[in-house]
Amino acid sequence: MEKDIDNLERPSERVMQTSLQTAYFLGFSDIPFAKEVSILCGADNCHYTHPQNIPVFEARYKAIDALVKRNGMIQVVEFAAGRTVRGINNPQWNYIHSDLDPSTLKQMRTLVKSRFKEKPNIHFINFDVISGEGLEEILKNLREERTAVVHAGFTTYFPNETRAKIAERVKFFLNRFGGVYITPDIPTEEYHREVQTIIPDEDERIRLRSKQVGRDLRSFYFKTYKEAFEFYSSLGFNIQRYHFGDLVGNLASVNRLFSNSEQGKNVETVVKNKEIWAMTL
Fold first, then answer.
1. Is pLDDT of 3 > 50?
2. Which of 99, 198, 263, 277 has the largest count of CB atoms under 10 Å?
3. Between the CA of residue 59 and those of 5, 55, 118, 201, what are the distances in Å?
4. Side-by-side strand order, sheet with 147-150
């Protein structure tokens, strides 16, 4: 396994650039502006051979939004926000679009300013979740009100030791402002086995993905959701577990990608069984 193990707490360039592929995947959804942003940032040049995985990106985006709104939040801090359109689509939120990659932030800031005019609700901030660099800038742009801390696809690149440090950063925000921590980043062998029912070569896909980003992603999986629950509970969180299907209805990407209705039904069933958690202190 090729590694950037020298510092597992800092994503490599290859890890950070996975946000480009995420933008491409969201382009198959009906999320407003997702396709346009995908094209504008050059993500439409991505190629992918496992379309069965694409609907999970639409579902997790929609599920996070649904849980933020269900919890009554209008202030959101997103870690590793990449090329998300979440701030564009929720102008009622005070939204922190944070990322470690300054080039991604510059691209998104320029794109929003040129295409969508000024969006005063969005604050683009270079933030290192582990070291805390950029935290003061985030705090300058937050109001004294309850806050949702969210991320999608971020902690799947880290071992538990680093996840625990990320959780401490989350707890700083929740202790300071109150609110909720929302994430679908609960990778488990349990769910992996479900995915194998729709992608028989899922093991090979993960192996190649691991080689691409320089990390053994399977080694970071929890064995079961129960194990993950015990891990986050031990860090002091009270956890509400949801499935994507509890929060998300139609998945446009399923309809667009699978003309075979039986295959589409199977994909949708597996995707909607993926868990997303809302955690409080």
1. no
2. 99
3. 31, 6, 28, 22
4. 122-126, 94-99, 75-78, 147-150, 179-183, 275-280, 238-243
**Alpha helices, H only, the chain:** 13-16, 18-26, 34-40, 54-70, 86-89, 102-115, 135-140, 160-177, 189-195, 202-213, 225-234, 244-247, 252-257, 261-272
N-terminal to C-terminal alpha carbon distance within the chain: 38
Q: Which tokens belong to 151?
A: 């991320």
Rounded (10°) angle between helices 18-26 and 54-70: 80
Contact 66, 96 (CB under 8 A): no
3-state secondary structure of 112: helix
**pTM attached to this predicted model:** 0.94
Return the structure tokens found at 124: 């683009």
pLDDT above 90 covers a percentage of the chain that reads 84
Residue 114, both tokens: 């040129």
C-alpha gyration radius of the chain: 18
**Tokens, residue 18:** 């996975």
Banded model confidence at residue 261, pLDDT cuts 50, 70, 90: confident
Give the pLDDT band (50/70/90) at residue 45.
Answer: confident
Half-sphere CA count of 50, side-chain side, radius 13 A: 18
In this prediction, residue 2 carries a pLDDT of 40
